[in-house]
Amino acid sequence: MENSESYRLPxxxxxxxxxxxxxxxxxxxxxxxxxxxxxxxxxxxxxxSLGTMLMITRIWDAVxxxxxxxxxxxxxxxxxxxxxxxxxxxxxxxxFAVLMFTTPNWGPTxxxxxxxxxxxxxxxxxxxxxxxxxxxxxxxxxxSMERTVVSAYRFVAAFGGTFVVQYALLNLVGYFGxxxxxxxxxxxxxxxxxxxxxxxxxxxxxxxxxVQPPKGQKNPILQDIKDLFTNVPWLxxxxxxxxxxTYIVMRNSTIMYYFKYFIQEQEIVLFGHVWNLSxxxxxxxxxxxxxxxxxxxxxxxxxxxQYLGKSACYLGFLVLAGLSTAGVYFLGPEDLKVLxxxxxxxxxxxxxxxxxxxxxxxxxxxxxxxxxxxxxxALIMAASLFALKLGVAFGGALLGxxxxxxxxxxxxxxxxxxxxxxxxxxxxxxxxxxxxxxxIMLFYPLNNLRMKQIETDLIERRxxxxxxxxx
Length: 471
Known about the structure:
By secondary structure, the chain is an all-alpha fold. The chain has helices at residues 11-33, 35-43, 47-73, 83-100, 108-139, 144-177, 181-206, 221-229, 232-263, 279-299, 301-308, 310-326, 336-372, 377-405, 416-426, 428-440, 448-467, and strands at 266-270, 273-277.
């Protein structure tokens, strides 16, 4: 009799799946870290207009996710339900990434309309490729712990994409644009967008779908939605995700402002040499050191979650990330060593949080099938992206509105009030959301032992379906 050990994946397929998230993160990490700065200080939108635009467009983007999930669950092709979307939308993904970071020579109203249109279309394409990509992890193997391994591969690749963005983006902008920063952003996105297209096609070519819905399953959308909203584990991790992403987006999007206006240019002595570092260099090194720590945290996730359990590990590291983030408020521009130390602690903590978030979501899909004898993987993962994007919407919008409320004005010396707003958005405000997300997970019911039993039950149930004669 087969058991879950029969569903181990070869390393090359894990890597092939993982590079799809590297492709997504080549653009998504620009959204998280650089988008607010690009729109205010390069493109030319006010902080208040930015906040409103991000709230409107990202809520619309979030609403699209369940719709895309329902479409993907009902897709039938020779490549499966989810893989074909990687093929169909790879090129549009790269093309609109370039358009979005192209600044037209128009007036304020025309540029704002252009930003609304290109950003909205780009996020819809992102949804069309990323919802099926996320759902693919739920059907690539029925083995719960193997999916945790796949998730770790995925997030090492995702953080690798983050590393590429943080190291290369501003260097590419300077290389291609020189004094013309707007041209530099457009050309830099041509490079990163083209790489994303290639990586999505690799994922399509190297992966397979192995978990099928129960034989004869019907797909009434209202029943799928009812199953989703009675899935208590999903509701809990979904709520935690909203707060987690609000935390991440608010903090990361503030980094460029924090270094440009608060830390500023610094003279640093290292190994007997004096280095004069611009805020761009300092912010780049800050981000890169953090991403290195995050990758280390992601690599150690399997071992940590085996001992602590997925939900307890997620909760504990989210608390640690929130507390270390809050500590930044007490630092001055000269406290770079402590700032870097807190960055390493925060970033290491984000590694297990990000890996386990998606592994937990696939567990809720198994729980839903076990409880209801129906499987709607794409809808569950799409609804999970809905929660994620609500957090992204709130984090970006709150940042814009808070900066405007404190009197931020782009590309000029900031008032004491504006500097305090930047410091609060780098520390206390995001930390509150991290701790709220952790608090929700105190009630999460699916521990490792229970998931092992659910996995065993589902394997036996699927075998019984396969042995049933066709009507």
